[in-house]
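Lecture 7 notes: from sequence to structure.

We start with a single chain of 549 residues. Read the sequence below before looking at the structure.
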Amino acid sequence: MLAGLTGMAGMVSVSNAVNVNPDGLGQVLMFPYYTARGGNDTLISIVNTTERGKAVKIRILEALNSREVLDFNIYMSEWDVWTGAITAASDGGGKLLTSDTTCTAPRIFAPSAGIGTDVNGDGVPDFGEIDFLPFQYTLGNTDFGPQGEERNASGHIEFIEMGTFLPTPASAAAGTEPYVAWSAKHVGPAGAREPNRCATFTELWAPANPGAVWRLGDSNFGFEPVGDDTLATGGLFGAASIINVAEGTMFSYNATAVDAFWSTNPLAGGALHTNPASLLPSLANGTNRTSNVFVNGVVQTNTWPGTVPVAPINATVMFETLMNEYNIEAGLGGRSEWVLTYPTKRFHTDAQGPVGTVVPNSPIPPFTNTWHRTSSGALNLPCEALSFRVWDREETEPTPDIGEVIPSPPPPTDAPQVFELCRETNVVRFTLDGDLPAETEILKEPIREGAFERLSYANFQLPDAFQAGWVRFDLTDVPTGAIIAPGANDPRRTTPADNGDQFEGMPVIGFWVNTFTNGALPGGTLANYGGSFDHHGSRSIVLGSVVIP
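Now the structure, written as tokens:
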């Protein structure tokens, strides 16, 4: 009977429910990691594969508590590509560089208008740049974590479609709706093409412009409508590459593409087009409450209550276990680091107002702790304790005789010694010794001290015989003795869907990066090799009293 019910659920069209599109196209793109640390730069790109222009919100979030450090709007023409690079700023944080002429609001780069930075001294800007900002985690918005600019040098990124333009005309009169799509269209000779008029997109939001239609309330002007909102049609894909020129490495990955985030039902509402200064839309603003997830080849369909706005998108990236390989063979100069990002964690755990809205010590499932300052002035962190199993390449597991895995940084002295991930974007360093370098060897994530020690990278020390193999993290069962908030779920399960179903585990995305170094080439030439590999996982769904493994 259970199989029959699940099969019936699979008859619902995947395109009508929130889903991770295996073909990589979507309305939302989630990038699990960027870094501007230690000589690393992160190149990002987004492609509009459709015949209509689009408005897209780009949001960059720091790694510790996912506080926003930059967001802006881009207005893409049909078939358009936008590119940018995240690199180190002079203040120790990150900044965005772009030489792409696609329209942005605010305007970042427009050579014909003199907007940008002129490095060649010829009077023509070569690129635009904008530093990341600390205002969402400092001053009146402080979360009492690290306050410096350095904090925003790594994190994760969201791209959210905000609407699809009306068809692009060959020409259009200023002030008309078709003029919006026409303004975004690139014209000119190959290699020097720029949009017709990017100023249109800042003028429509400008406070001093009496004709700022978008600012005055009609933010759907120029877009395909869905009731009182805009239509989002998806068709976006994106990718990132982490490049270290000095070390000769590059690690590339594709963004996780979520489709059907916005509903096409006028009663539910469509996409949300907001001004560049708005913190909306976020991953909590999707108007489609139904999700589709493949479990053992069958589509599992659920509709979620509005009390947990991120529930549909959570379901698409929920895993009960997470798995990948490691290789730290000394003879190969091997290094391995994992990135594990909880893209929606802040909506469950950030209890430090005014930005955070969760009640302290009342995390929203499946997470088990909150980020907030206690009455004693201490910082309570949303650490998630994980159990794990480790194998070498010949199915051997560590034992007391062989040696055991030693995780760090350590939990509080009054807590059991368990492996914890306390950040939203976590980097796990695999090693054979107990040394804790100031930064990880590949991604350059820093060690932190004092009250912020648990916000360091996570160190995963393996026994000497375990130089290559694989690891499986259990994201569902909380290890015995781990500290969790009163009433938090153990095992970790979501708030129930409308039919009572619960997904086990946590929502997570990420990848493994691996390097080898060959210092024995002729002439003393140093050669570095690297690769990146997506994580793997298993799913578990509780239907009433029955678990689908």
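The two ends are 16 Å apart (CA to CA). Keep this in mind for problem set 3.
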